[in-house]
Amino acid sequence: MWYYVSKIIVVLSILGPPVIVKFEDQRVVNFGEMVQVKCAATGHPLPKIHMTFNTRSVKEADDVTVMSKTEIEFKAIRNSEVHCEATNEFGRDKRKMRILVQRKY
Predict the structure, then answer these.
(1) Which of 102, 35, 19, 23 has its CA nearest to residue 70?
(2) Those residues with Cβ within 8 angstroms of residue 20's Cβ, 6 or more apart along the chain or in another chain
(3) Please, what's the b/e burial string for 27-63 (b: 16 or more CB within 10 A of its CB; e: otherwise)?
(4) Cα 100 to the center of its chain, rounded Å
(5) What pLDDT was estimated at residue 9?
(6) Maximum Cα–Cα distance for the chain, whole Å?
C-alpha cells in the first residue's frame, strides 16, 4: 500500500512603499547638549534611509557622528534641521525635524 503526501507552502509577501514611523517634527534642546536623532521606516522591501543635517549628507557633515544607518549624534550649538528620507522601489517618504537650541542665561 502506497500513500502520497504532498505539501504546498505558500509565502505571501505584501509589497508597499516606505512609511517613516519614528522621527520627531521638532525638538528643543539646551546649548551644548549631545543630541541623538533616529529615523525608522517600514515598507517592503525594507527601505533605504538617507539623512541630511543642515542640507548636507550626514556622512559629509563635520559635526555629526553617524551611529548607524538610521541614527546620528551631534552637539547642539545652533538651530538645525535634520531630514530623513526613506525610499524603496514602491515610493518615498520624507520628514523634517527642527532642532531648536536654547541658551541658559
Answers:
(1) 23
(2) 39, 40, 41, 84, 86, 93, 94, 95
(3) eebeeeeebebbbebebeeebebbbbbbeeebeebee
(4) 19
(5) 76
(6) 91
According to the model, what pLDDT value does residue 2 have? 67
Amino acid making up residue 38: K
Residue 45: asked if its preceding bond is cis (omega within 30°), the reply is: yes
Low-confidence ranges of the chain (pLDDT < 50): none
Pairing type for strands 48-53 and 80-88 reads antiparallel
Q: What is the pLDDT of residue 8?
A: 78
Q: Give dist(CA 51, CA 104) in Å, integer.
A: 29
The amino acid present at 37, given as its one-letter code, is: V
Q: Which three cell numbers stand for residue 69?
A: 544607518
